[in-house]
């Protein structure tokens, strides 16, 4: 597994993008306007992204850490054997499949297997 992104819920997208872009040197990778809010993906050095989401339905702060996996079924089985309880079993998504569990602090850990 490797970390692909960290998702943060923000109160003000413009202010947050300004901070990460102009102060920390990240570049905008992509932006999406959704009916329920906005999403901006920012890229720094390497392959890891920061995903900012502005949506009043969620509490502000760290929401999830996304992990790329090569084989979803193998990873899920291995983690279950280690006592991990999944909040969301693997489901199909646009880019492949995903599953979700929480760490001991309540942070969502999202596994994503991308279609090739």
Structure description:
The protein is α+β, with helices and mostly antiparallel strands. Helix content is 18%, strand content 51%. The longest helix is centred in the N-terminal third of the chain and has 11 residues, at 13-23. The radius of gyration is 15 Å and the shape is globular. The model has no long low-confidence stretch (mean pLDDT 93).
- Total number of helices: 2
- Computed over alpha carbons, the radius of gyration is 15 Å
pLDDT averaged residue by residue? 93
Q: Strand fraction band?
A: over 45%
What's the N-to-C terminus distance? 17 Å
Ranges where pLDDT stays below 50 over 5 or more residues in a row are none
How are the strands of the biggest sheet laid out side by side?
A: 2-3-4-1-5-8-7-6
Structural class: alpha+beta
């Amino acid at each position: 597994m490797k970390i692909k992104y960290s998702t943060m819920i923000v109160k003000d997208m413009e202010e947050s993008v300004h901070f990460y872009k102009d102060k920390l040197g990240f570049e905008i990778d992509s932006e999406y306007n959704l009916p329920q809010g906005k999403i901006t993906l920012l890229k720094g050095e390497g392959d890891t992204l920061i995903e900012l989401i502005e949506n009043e339905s969620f509490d502000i702060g760290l929401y999830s850490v996304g992990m790329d996996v090569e084989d979803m079924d193998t990873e899920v089985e291995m983690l279950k054997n280690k006592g991990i309880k999944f909040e969301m079993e693997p489901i199909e998504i646009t880019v492949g499949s995903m599953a979700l569990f929480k760490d001991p602090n309540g942070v969502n850990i999202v596994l994503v297997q991308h279609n090739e």
